């Protein structure tokens, strides 16, 4: 076991995957000689060479398009986009090509591609650097979507994503990269895609979150515990496949639910989760399901603290649902 932060866990996962499987390769802007903009790929070009750690031009469509071709013909490329907001330049390749290859070829081909990208606010970046775009990918059939919240899951989920035969969008919480360390196993292990984790058990309200919002949920849970209110916090870990069973079982126990995400509210992933709860656990609810989200605006550079969900907003939503009111 070794103490690592999240970015070190990602680096370790890539190192292990490339050591175990010569088909695994890395490509993206500055991933080689510079070790990645956040140093996620630091040291890999020295260990594995420039044929497996490839510095690409500044062209997101080219990065993803090339990775698709390599994946279809048998390699396991891990493509890095420096910030998720830049992935919009490659939507045609990812959404119209990678996600459809298995269907389009009637199962003759698959696309074992992993697209890594940091996302989300909290570090006061410029425009396009803080966007949370997970709903775009969740809405696209053929893609799996992963969003770890801690170093252990970051490594295990990335290794599982690389192992998967279909394209996986792997979202890394930018503000959690170096937020803390925890012990993670050395060597190869996986965390299964499609399985949520109950990171805090409780009895009064189910709080569903992913990525950086898990820490917000846990902070609110600690503060509300002083008031005698018990939150059960679910870390989804993967958005596709969605672990609906864990969500429903928890809501049936607590009778109240809140979903947290930093993406805009309208048509966010939270809306789908609310729909799933209503379809499967409506008669267990004692109040409407609440959402604590970003606002329906472009994330404002320099004003992220006013935009992002925080523990205070979560606490207000908890009080509202316990009072059987819509927040």
Put the structure in a nutshell.
With 327 residues, this protein is α/β, with parallel strands linked by helices. The chain has helices at residues 6-20, 44-48, 60-72, 91-96, 101-104, 134-138, 151-163, 213-225, 244-254, 269-281, 304-307, 311-322; strands spanning 2-4, 24-28, 53-55, 76-80, 114-119, 144-146, 168-173, 182-184, 197-200, 205-209, 231-235, 238-240, 257-264, 290-294. The chain contains twelve helices and 14 strands.
Describe this structure as you would to a colleague.
This protein has 327 residues and is an alpha/beta fold. It has 2 domains: 2-184, Rossmann fold, CATH 3.40.50; 197-322, Rossmann fold. Helix content is 35%, strand content 20%. The strands form 3 sheets. The protein has a 7-stranded mixed β-sheet with strand order 3-2-4-5-7-6-12, sandwiched between helices. Helix 10 (269-281) links the parallel strand 13 and strand 14 (290-294). It is globular and about 60 Å long.
């Amino acid at each position: 076991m070794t103490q690592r932060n999240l970015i070190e866990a990602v680096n370790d996962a890539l190192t292990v995957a490339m050591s175990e499987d010569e088909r695994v390769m890395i490509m993206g802007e500055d991933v080689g000689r510079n070790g990645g903009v956040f140093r996620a790929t630091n040291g890999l070009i020295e260990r594995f060479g420039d044929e497996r750690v490839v510095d690409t031009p500044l062209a997101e469509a080219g990065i993803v398009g090339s990775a698709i071709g390599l994946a279809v013909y048998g390699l396991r490329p891990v493509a890095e986009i420096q910030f998720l907001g830049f992935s919009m330049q490659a939507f045609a390749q990812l959404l119209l090509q990678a996600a459809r290859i298995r269907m389009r070829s009637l199962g003759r081909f698959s696309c074992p591609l992993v697209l890594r990208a940091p996302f989300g606010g909290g570090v006061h970046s410029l425009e396009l650097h803080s966007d949370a775009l997970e709903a775009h990918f969740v809405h696209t059939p053929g893609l799996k979507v992963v969003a770890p919240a801690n170093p252990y899951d970051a490594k295990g989920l990335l290794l599982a994503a690389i192992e998967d035969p279909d394209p996986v969008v792997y979202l890394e919480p930018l503000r959690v990269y170096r937020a803390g360390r925890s012990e993670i196993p050395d060597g190869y292990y996986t965390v299964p895609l499609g399985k949520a984790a109950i990171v805090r058990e409780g009895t009064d309200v189910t709080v569903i979150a992913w990525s950086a919002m898990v820490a917000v949920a846990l902070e609110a849970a600690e503060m509300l515990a002083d008031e005698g209110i018990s939150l059960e916090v679910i870390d989804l870990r993967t958005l596709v496949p969605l672990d609906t069973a864990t969500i429903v079982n928890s809501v049936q126990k607590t009778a109240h639910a809140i979903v947290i995400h930093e993406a805009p509210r309208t048509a966010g992933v939270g809306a789908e989760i609310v729909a799933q709860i209503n379809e499967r656990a409506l008669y267990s609810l004692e109040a409407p399901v609440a959402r604590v989200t970003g606002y329906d605006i472009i994330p404002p550079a320099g004003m992220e603290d006013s935009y992002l969900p925080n523990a205070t907003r979560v606490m207000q939503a908890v009080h509202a649902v316990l009072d059987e009111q819509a927040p």
